[in-house]
Amino acid sequence: MKRICIVLVGIGLAAAAPSAVAGASSASPPARSALFHTVELRKTKIGKILVNAAGSILYEFTKDHGDKDSCQQISGCSSAWPAMPVAGKPSAGAGLQGSLLSTIKLSSGEVQVTYAGHPLYLFASAPTATSYVGTKEFGGSWYALNAKGQAVK
Predict the structure, then answer these.
(1) Which contiguous run of DSSP H or E holds residue 6?
(2) pLDDT for 55-108, tens place per residue?
(3) Could you give the angle at the alpha carbon of 88 between the alpha carbons of 82 and 92, nearest 5°?
(4) Which uninterrupted H or E stretch holds 51?
(5) For the segment 30-48, what is each residue's pLDDT rounded down to a tens digit?
(6) Strand order in the sheet with 47-52
(7) Using CA atoms, how far apart are residues 18 and 28, in angstroms rounded to an integer?
(8) What is the 3-class SS of 11-43, one letter each residue?
(9) Which conformational region is residue 90 in: left (phi greater than 0), alpha (psi within -120 to 50 degrees), or beta?
């Protein structure tokens, strides 16, 4: 009898474990908090442009100057166009120059990736849709970047 009880207790614990794991996964942080370290070059219908490891297009904001994120100072901008965050040093994928990658520290304490001096952003509503390249919003335009760090319009 004791043996059966021990086995049943063991089965009960094993059965409880998946629900604990499922509960933990449902409380996972939003995708925005994921820290992507690699900037990649991807061929799209508008040309080869920078993306993060998840395939989200990386944008420049024409209102930014001198390695400064201007978006964070504009109400609502960072919600629509979040900074590409990183922990540690970002890395360059094939076809990109690692020497053009850098980071800046934002007033929030978050670290944002830059490429060729351009702070990089994601478009929260449609991260992989190229149709938003060239959008005019928050006092500037949002363009994808090529491997040289030039705007793709």
Answers:
(1) helix 2-26
(2) 999 999 999 998 999 999 999 999 999 999 998 899 999 999 999 999 999 999
(3) 80
(4) strand 47-52
(5) 344 456 679 999 999 999 9
(6) 47-52, 38-44, 91-92
(7) 15
(8) HHHHHHHHHHHHHHHHCCCCHHHCCCCEEEEEE
(9) beta
Per the listing, tokens 């304490």 go with 109
Residue of 129, 33, 128, 114 lying closest to 71 (CA atoms)? 114
Say how many Å lie between the first and final Cα of the chain, rounded: 75
98 strand-pairing partners: none
How far is 47 from 38, CA to CA, in rounded Å?
A: 19
> C-alpha angle 84/86/92, rounded to 5°?
85
